[in-house]
Amino acid sequence: MNRNYIFLTLLMLVLAVGTVFLTMDDEPNQVDPEILLQEIIQPTRYVSTDQVAKMIIQGDPSLMLIDVRSEDDFQGYSLPHSINIPLDSLLTADNLSYFGIPGTKVVFVSDDDIRADQMWVLTKRLGYKGTYVMRGGLNCWMQTIIEPKQPSDDASYADMETYSFRKGAQIYFTGAEEETSDDSKVEVQVQKREKTNVALGGC
Asked: What is the pTM for the complete model shown?
């Protein structure tokens, strides 16, 4: 990750926190800013595309995917069973009702990390727990799940296992044909999903 991206992400996070200070000053359950800043630097707030794919395939009832992009982007492509709450529409009673449900893991999704990070900060500032960001967003999803790259012949066993899972996930989410030459297959139910482009960027 380059320095410009890190700087832009931090700037967006600071702006998001500032917005909460200005608009939600009377809320009684807000998290102390120092505690919030400590949580921001923790890598545990991220989940990988592989983890999200596995939870979707297994039908994990604790997973709630919230897509923070615009409605148009959401209609163009979205992950199965995800809910669209654009970043600027968070602070409504209906949308806030999705948060704070015991046992629920809320994962924010955007094209990359920036808007999802902002949503994470806003919900954390309001005192909600169990929220995460899908690292790399849908750009990373396309690169790792929809179009996984085959490792080299001398790749580690772990890399081959990851690739095997991703090929199975690709079949599940796109309905792509499984290659007969692939010795390690993942048994998953095939469900066709429309493939489309998302914003440029990587994971």
From this structure: 0.74
